[in-house]
C-alpha cells in the first residue's frame, strides 16, 4: 500500500517485482582453498561455511574452490581464480565474498579492489554470528572485545576502503591523524573491555567455586550437536533450542536429579567449531569456566553428521586450549535416530567403546546415559572408615550430607562411619580428633 496526494491509501501496482518491496538479503559467494596443512573436511568442503553464512543471514548464490600447494601472498587465491571470482560476482550480482580461510588485511584489501564488493574471512563471519547471537551483557562484552582485537590491525585498510568508495581527497585517505586517533580510541575501548571482563571472570570464578562440593557436569561439543536439546531432555529446563549454528552463547546451569544417586548440576556451554578464532576462545574464558571446573564433561557429538570424527577432534583441540584435555570425559553420540550411514556409526562406536548412543529429541538411550554418568562420577569416590567422637556433630552432619553412608558402629564415646565420599571433599573432614582409614569399596 501507498498514500496518494490526499493522504489516502492506494494499492501498489501488481506489476512491481515483489523482491523490490523488501530489504534484500546479502547475496554471498563462498570460497574455500585446500592447502597441504589445511585439508578439506568431508566430501562437501563448503557445507559448513554455507551453514555459517546462512546463519548470518546471507543468501548463498555461488561457490568457488581451489587446491593449492601454497597461498598467493597478495590475494590468497591464484590470479586466474581471482578473475573467475570477479566474473562470478558480476554475473550473480553478489554483495559479499566469504572465504573459508583466514585472510590478512592486505589480502582482504586486494580482493575488495578486484571484486569491488565486501570480502570477509572465516573469523570475521564467526564473530558476526556471535555478535547477533549475544544476549547477555557478559556475552556482548566478550564478542565486542574479540571484534575489536580482530579489527585493530585492519584499521589502515578500513580507512583506505572508505577513501576508495566514499570519495576521499586525492585517493590518500582521511589521513594519519584520524587513523591514529581511531587506533587510540580502539585501544582505550579494548582496555576498558578487558577490565570489565576481568571483573566478570573473577565473579564467575567465585560463583563456580561455591559449587565445589556439588557434583557438576558440563555439556560440551561441536556447534549444533544437540547439547541444549539433551539438557532439556535430562532436566526439563526448557532452554532455547534452534537448529542453527551457535544458538547458545550463554552458559545455563540446571539441576539434574539422578535416581538413587542425588542432585547433579548440569551446565550447557557455547558450541565449538573447527578453526575457532583464538581471540574468541580467550574472550569467552569466563563463559567456559563451567567446563574448566566441572567434575565430568559430556562431549555431545552429532552422530548423523558425516564429519563427526573430525568434529570430535576439533572439540578436543579447543578443550586442550582451555586446559580441559585431562578432564574426565564421556562421549555421547547424539541423533542416532537420524543416522543414515550405520557403518560410520559403527566406526565411531568402535573408536570410542565407552560412548553412549542417544537421541535427545526422541528420548532414546537416556537411561543408559544416566547409568554411565553415575558410574563416571562414582569413579572419583573413595571408600573410607571415619572414626571420630560421637559428639563431633560437624563431621557427622557433613558425612550425612555429602557421603553415601554404608554403616555406623558406636563404641562408648566413639563412632566409626563406613562410607563412600568424593575424594575432593576429604579435606573437609580431616583434622584433630578425626581418623580416616581407607578400605576397598564394598561389593553390593
Protein architecture, described:
The chain has 444 residues and is α/β, with parallel strands linked by helices. Helices cover 39% and strands 21% of the residues. The chain contains 14 helices and 16 strands. The chain has helices at residues 47-55, 79-91, 105-115, 122-133, 137-151, 155-166, 176-209, 227-235, 278-283, 289-293, 308-321, 342-351, 366-378, 393-402, and strands at 2-3, 9-10, 27-34, 59-67, 96-99, 118-120, 215-221, 252-258, 262-268, 296-302, 329-334, 356-357, 381-389, 404-411, 414-422, 434-438. The strands form four sheets. Strands 8-9-7-10-11-12 form a six-stranded mixed sheet, sandwiched between helices. A four-stranded parallel sheet has the order 4-3-5-6, with helices on both faces. A hairpin with a 5-residue loop joins strand 1 (2-3) and strand 2 (9-10). Helix 3 runs parallel beside helix 6. The longest helix has 34 residues, at 176-209.
Draw up the topology in text.
Blueprint: E1 2-3, E2 9-10, E3 27-34, H1 47-55, E4 59-67, H2 79-91, E5 96-99, H3 105-115, E6 118-120, H4 122-133, H5 137-151, H6 155-166, H7 176-209, E7 215-221, H8 227-235, E8 252-258, E9 262-268, H9 278-283, H10 289-293, E10 296-302, H11 308-321, E11 329-334, H12 342-351, E12 356-357, H13 366-378, E13 381-389, H14 393-402, E14 404-411, E15 414-422, E16 434-438
Parallel strand pairs: 3-4, 3-5, 5-6, 7-9, 7-10, 10-11, 11-12
Antiparallel strand pairs: 1-2, 8-9, 13-15, 13-16, 14-15
Amino acid at each position: 500500500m501507498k498514500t496518494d496526494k490526499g493522504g489516502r491509501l492506494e494499492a501498489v501496482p501488481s506489476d512491481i517485482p515483489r523482491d523490490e518491496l523488501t530489504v534484500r538479503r546479502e547475496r554471498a559467494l563462498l570460497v574455500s582453498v585446500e592447502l597441504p596443512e589445511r585439508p578439506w573436511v568431508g566430501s562437501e568442503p563448503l557445507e559448513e561455511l554455507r551453514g555459517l553464512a546462512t546463519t548470518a543471514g546471507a543468501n548463498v548464490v555461488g561457490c568457488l574452490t581451489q587446491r593449492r600447494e601454497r597461498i598467493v601472498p597478495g590475494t590468497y587465491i591464484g590470479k586466474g581464480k581471482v578473475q573467475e571470482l570477479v566474473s562470478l560476482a558480476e554475473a550473480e550480482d553478489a554483495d559479499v565474498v566469504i572465504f573459508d580461510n583466514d585472510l590478512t588485511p592486505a589480502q582482504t584489501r586486494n580482493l575488495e579492489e578486484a571484486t569491488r564488493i565486501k570480502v570477509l574471512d572465516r573469523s570475521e563471519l564467526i564473530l558476526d554470528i556471535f555478535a547477533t547471537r549475544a544476549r547477555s551483557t557478559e556475552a556482548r562484552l566478550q564478542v565486542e572485545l574479540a571484534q575489536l582485537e580482530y579489527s585493530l590491525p585492519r584499521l589502515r585498510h578500513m580507512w583506505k576502503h572508505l577513501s576508495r568508495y566514499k570519495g576521499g581527497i586525492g585517493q590518500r585517505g582521511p589521513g594519519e591523524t584520524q587513523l591514529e586517533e581511531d587506533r587510540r580510541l580502539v585501544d582505550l575501548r579494548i582496555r576498558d573491555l578487558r577490565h570489565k571482563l576481568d571483573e566478570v571472570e573473577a565473579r564467575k570464578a567465585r560463583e563456580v567455586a561455591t559449587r565445589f562440593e556439588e557434583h557438576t557436569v558440563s555439556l560440551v561439543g561441536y556447534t549444533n550437536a544437540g547439547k541444549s536439546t539433551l539438557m532439556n531432555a535430562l532436566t526439563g529446563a526448557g532452554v532455547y533450542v534452534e537448529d542453527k549454528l551457535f544458538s547458545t552463547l550463554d552458559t545455563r546451569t540446571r539441576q539434574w536429579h539422578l535416581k538413587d544417586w542425588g542432585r547433579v548440576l548440569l551446565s550447557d556451554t557455547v558450541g565449538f567449531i573447527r578453526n575457532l578464532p583464538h581471540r574468541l576462545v580467550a574472550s569467552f574464558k569466563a563463559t567456559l569456566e563451567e567446563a574448566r571446573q566441572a567434575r565430568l564433561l559430556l562431549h555431545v557429538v552429532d552422530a548423523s553428521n558425516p564429519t563427526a570424527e573430525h568434529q570430535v577432534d576439533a572439540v578436543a583441540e579447543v578443550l586442550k586450549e582451555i586446559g580441559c584435555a585431562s578432564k574426565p570425559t564421556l562421549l555421547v553420540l547424539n541423533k542416532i535416530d537420524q543416522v543414515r550411514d550405520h557403518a560410520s556409526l559403527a566406526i565411531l562406536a568402535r573408536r570410542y567403546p565407552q560412548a553412549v548412543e542417544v537421541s535427545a529429541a526422541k528420548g532414546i538411550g537416556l537411561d543408559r546415559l544416566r547409568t554411565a554418568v553415575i558410574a563416571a562420577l562414582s569413579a572419583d569416590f573413595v571408600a573410607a572408615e571415619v572414626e571420630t567422637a560421637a559428639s563431633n556433630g560437624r563431621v557427622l552432619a557433613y558425612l550425612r550430607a555429602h557421603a553415601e553412608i554404608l554403616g555406623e558402629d558406636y563404641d562408648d564415646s566413639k563412632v566409626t562411619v563406613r562410607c563412600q565420599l568424593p575424594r575432593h571433599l576429604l579435606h573437609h573432614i580431616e583434622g584433630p580428633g578425626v581418623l580416616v582409614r581407607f578400605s576397598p569399596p564394598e561389593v553390593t
